[in-house]
Amino acid sequence: VGRPNVGKSTLLNALVGQKVSITSDKAQTTRHRITGVRTVDEAQFVFVDTPGFQTKHNAALNRTLNRTVHGVLADVDLVLFVVEAGRFGLDDAKVLALLPEDKPVVLIANKLDAVHRRAELAPWLKGMQERRNFSEFVPLSAKKEADVTRLFKILKPYLPEQGWFYDEDALTDRSERFLASEIIREKL
């Protein structure tokens, strides 16, 4: 979860290894709960992409998108809180306030490739740790395969011991028709 345009859908696509969620610089691109699945060896990871949390609730669409975010937070075992590396604004703080206290939360500092002065990340990280006791802190670029591979290793211990929800070759719970309609919407 995270505010709009922090790279949640880009990260989901990288984790799945294929585009299952559309991406755009426009807010409200992701409007549905999108499940992405990746089976690595004996472990199956099930990720859920959410719309960016909308801080302006005056529009019906924004309220609907926010209900989706709340529903996902109730359903998952582990929360990935995605922010832009080195940035934390009011919209990020509003999302942070929503996160459940009874579940582990991993802070994903995405878009690391856009940070020009890495030394500035240390005080930023200290400030983030003061905001919440995150289970893990993972600086990464969703566009770098090595970073995504490292993230799988970090997340694996958090997987519950249970049977798989999806077939080994499944990538999403969405139909091809839905994915096609989303890609058309992305291009418009």
UniProtKB/TrEMBL annotation:
Source organism per UniProt: Hemiselmis andersenii (Cryptophyte alga)
Cross-referenced Gene3D superfamilies: P-loop containing nucleotide triphosphate hydrolases (3.40.50.300)
Alphabetical keyword list: GTP-binding, Nucleotide-binding
Family stated for the protein in its record: Belongs to the TRAFAC class TrmE-Era-EngA-EngB-Septin-like GTPase superfamily. Era GTPase family.
Listed GO biological process terms: ribosomal small subunit assembly
Record bears the keyword Nucleotide-binding: yes
GO cellular component: cytosol
Name this protein carries in UniProt: Era-type G domain-containing protein
Region (G5), start-end ranges: 140-142
InterPro entries attached to this UniProt entry: G_ERA_dom, GTP-bd, GTPase_Era-like, P-loop_NTPase, Small_GTP-bd
Region (G1) residue spans: 2-9
Higher taxonomy: Eukaryota, Cryptophyceae, Cryptomonadales, Hemiselmidaceae, Hemiselmis
